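step: validate -> pass
step: tokenize input -> pass
step: predict -> running
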Amino acid sequence: MPQMTRAAGVMVADSQVMSLLAADVPELDLAGHSFVVRGPSPLEGAVEVSGAKNSVLKLMAATLLAEGAYRIANVPRITDVGLMAELLRAIGCKVTLPSRSVGGSLIVEVPAEIEPVAPSGIVDQFRASIEVLGPMLARCGEAVVALPGGDDFGPRPIDMHLQGLAKLGVEAETVDGYVHARVQELTGGTIRLDFPSVGATENLLMAAVRARGTTVIDNAAREPEVADLCEFLNKMGAQISGSGSGTLTINGVDHAEALQPVDHSVVGDRIVAATYLAAVGIATGEIVVTGVDRDHMAVLCGKLGDMGMEISADGDSIRACVSGRLSSAKFSTLPYPGVATDLKPLLVALLATADGVGSVTENLFAERFRYVDDLRLMGADIRIDSHHVVIEGKERLSAAKVKAPDIRAGAALVIAGLGAEGETVVSDAHHIARGYDDLAAKLNSLGADVSRS
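step: predict -> pass
step: emit ->
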């Protein structure tokens, strides 16, 4: 395959990205701040969940498929959205980030010509950046994408992305930390994923929309965020069936004009909703979480009910009531509709104050345990055995100075502080801003005592 050199000269320094984000989103503190949690205190009230991080980033990538102006509503004000905005700008788009005064809508204006290069410096800060690969190939027939970064909890190679794209006729190689990919014409084919990878499913889905003929993705991811992307693409004019199932069938559209820009509202964030449920499980009290579909959390809600949480749903609201210590339980992380791997740190924190011995088995990312030592500093009794975590619950944790290693682990340490005596300080909490829209203020609205320093 001929060498592609467009990537030269497009490196963007981390400091430059952060200054651009700070200018765009002045209310976000992108420095290495801390959360200070003073516990214990029960929670009471209602909290609204915004759009899912794991959906909005892919919807933003999908706008590259067709020229025009897109309006995406229910967008969370998180750092990763700002990073994706900068990536789209580097590719040639104009992006207006949401402000609180306009109801959380984001606008992406995609030009007639885009530059199919995703530069390092932006890409290496978040994993969802690889999702521009499929749309750029579909739009331009070529793409240069730096290898992605994001939370560090074990290897997450992009082999399935590239193997699936090869089934559509794409030639790709990795050179000096960049994926160089090219295709004369995307051609439909049958792809069976070795594992129902969300990222690979979404990348292949977006490429297949413009492939000639029919593409079948078997063993596809079934997550609600994938279904949200399918809905977005079908609104644009794509022909996708099987959304929400393990088999997606895509009839490719035959010309660029068949796809049009659309307005869309992002599905509610089930992981953030689960964070508040775990919080009340630790702190006790009664809360209502709004803006999320309970069906997307059915397995988790069932398990929480078994632990003693009074939990019920009404429309897009979930009510949870906890009057005392929950009973312990056993969890296993699995692809949807199972318990999401993102929930593991939250569940370990929850079990740290439950009555009895519980466990969480990690079946997806073997190294996702870096927060355990910090929970131990807070008095948690936790033992790691291979990919299992065994937790003997304590009636009360102790305040400590801890450090957030990633988005969900950082949030888990914050909510653990709700069940600890004294003042817990969670440093490196800039990670939390990547996935949570103003977590401190929302917890405070429920009666917690959380501040930023």
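step: describe -> The CA atoms of residues 20 and 377 lie 37 Å apart.
step: cleanup -> pass
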